[in-house]
Amino acid sequence: MESSLVKDNPLLLPLNQDKTVYDGFITVQERDFRMRILLPPDRQLARARLHCCWQLKHLLRGYEHIVKQEVGLKSRPDCRSIPPPQYYSQLISEMETLGWAKLLSIDTEFQTLRLKAEDSSGRQHVLTVKLKSKHPAEAPECSADLPIPLVITWTPQSTLDQLHSQFLLLLESLTEFWDVLDEIDSKTWILEPEKPSRSDTTRRIAIGNNVSIKVQVDPRHPKMLPECCLLGAEHVVTPLRNKLNANMQLWNPDSSVLHNLRDVLEIEFPSPATHEKSSFSVECGICYSYRLEAAIPDQVCNDPRCGQPFHQACLYEWLRALPSSRQSFSIVFGECPYCSKVRVHLALTDRRQ
């Protein structure tokens, strides 16, 4: 019965514009039965209701989900028609030219392809291509893990090979950007993001215990001075901030970003060769965990004898509930939850929502 229903594609026609009510006939065991199907507004098939005579209900017992699936496919607003035969021959021809070795995967509808590419530094990248039914007359949807928008030029005469070549050229334009971040990743301890992707432009680099710097590299100008934000206790951050401001003119675009950061801050960054990452992964003094969802502790008690770090969200909730806390403009001051000194403050404009 299942194969018969799918093969015969029963005549069920929508009665409303939203395609949530269907009425028509279905043939079961060489008999025609009238049926009405009501879909909920969210089109969840599990909650669809079938209305028919008791004989049909008896015959369909255990097969109701098949009928619902047929109607669900009909009612999908984004339901696409099956591509014509020349679509598949065109696809095979283009893949022959591109090379099957570059194909990582293809979906069962032969419309979503994942193509691999390698830049000049040996990095592996993936280009996801979603072809339209009228390919190549319609431009495909393309996506990749990149720090800049993926802009592809496409004409009805374009091919997958040309698309792949455009992607390679874009990868080459970003090689220097990834070189900069790869050096930082390999020679320093990265606190955030935990697992950087090729689209990430920021790195939070450990400088010492509860002290770090967040840098944001420009993908188009990766060796220029990045946006920098020093995080940590004021008595530690202030001297570093002064050095950064005083030595900013020494920045050399011909040198690497990491080398320049060392020079302008006049420090040596802890590296995997000299330190364990656990030295910088200090738990929050309020919730006693290191990661709170995606956040790590980035607020620190300013008392040199304490220096306990906290999550922004945890510290905000603590200060808000503390009767002795006070606010000056957008800054909230209060006692440290760890040492009880009036040494912590939080800028409300910086608090993560």
TrEMBL record:
Pfam families: FANCL_C, FANCL_d1, FANCL_d2, FANCL_d3
PROSITE patterns documented for this protein: ZF_RING_2 (PS50089)
Main location: cytoplasm
Pathway: Protein modification; protein ubiquitination
Ranges of residues in domain RING-type: 284-340
GO cellular component assignments: cytoplasm; Fanconi anaemia nuclear complex
Catalyzed reactions per annotation: S-ubiquitinyl-[E2 ubiquitin-conjugating enzyme]-L-cysteine + [acceptor protein]-L-lysine = [E2 ubiquitin-conjugating enzyme]-L-cysteine + N(6)-ubiquitinyl-[acceptor protein]-L-lysine
Biological process terms in GO annotation: interstrand cross-link repair; protein monoubiquitination
UniProt KW Secreted keyword: no
EC number(s) per entry: 2.3.2.27
EC category name: transferase
Keyword Cytoplasm: yes
Record-linked InterPro entries: Fancl (IPR026848), FANCL_C (IPR026850), FANCL_d2 (IPR043898), FANCL_d3 (IPR044037), FANCL_d3_sf (IPR043003), FancL_WD-rpt_cont_dom (IPR019162), UBQ-conjugating_enzyme/RWD (IPR016135), Znf_RING (IPR001841)
GO molecular function: ubiquitin protein ligase activity; zinc ion binding
Protein's cellular compartments: Cytoplasm; Nucleus
PANTHER family cross-referenced by the UniProt entry: E3 UBIQUITIN-PROTEIN LIGASE FANCL, UBIQUITIN LIGASE PROTEIN PHF9 FANCONI ANEMIA GROUP L PROTEIN
Record-given protein name: E3 ubiquitin-protein ligase FANCL
